Amino acid sequence: MTLYPILYTRDPPSLKILNQLLLPHQEIYENVTTIQQGYEQIKQMKVRGAPAIGLVAALSLAIELQIKSLEFSNNKNHKDSEPLNIISSPTALGEFIRKSLDYLNTSRPTAVNLFLSSKKLWEVTCDGLEENLSSKEIIEKIVDFVVKMLEDDLKDNKNIGKFGGEFLFSKVDNEMISVVTHCNTV
């Protein structure tokens, strides 16, 4: 059975992170619906490996924005819901995203992929603002980008496993081998 460190669905929005602190004895996935929860997953080292850390940060932003957008669409009285007001204004959304990315960056100060993900997400946000997109359109653009990041990461990880396996088997003659993997092999 293949364990995936990240399980994400776009519709309905759902993000589950494998708690890697419990491996190999338990396989427990934890729900993440907010930036704060994504931050805690990274900070507490429940997610490991540079690419996965960057993805959890990006996905926690995307999932919170998706949920807020759905709540905004379903809420008729937006004035009573301060957190949802960020959806009503692209400028407010941009400020929220900037602050959220800055916050997520403090979860693991040495994680290069975390900073790269944040930089790219900020560029996507700025592009949306410059194009005068609505908040909903900016959120869709961010989600599209994050989904592509996740797909690319899965493809990269499978290729690492495939080519690494082929290389190892090319070096032995019908011998049993043991391999320990970490970080980003699926």
Automatic annotation (TrEMBL):
Swiss-Prot/TrEMBL GO biological process terms: L-methionine salvage from methylthioadenosine
Keywords, comma-separated and alphabetical: Amino-acid biosynthesis, Isomerase, Methionine biosynthesis
Coiled-coil boundaries: none
Molecular function per GO: S-methyl-5-thioribose-1-phosphate isomerase activity
Family: Belongs to the eIF-2B alpha/beta/delta subunits family.
Annotated protein name in UniProt: S-methyl-5-thioribose-1-phosphate isomerase
Organism of derivation: Diversispora epigaea
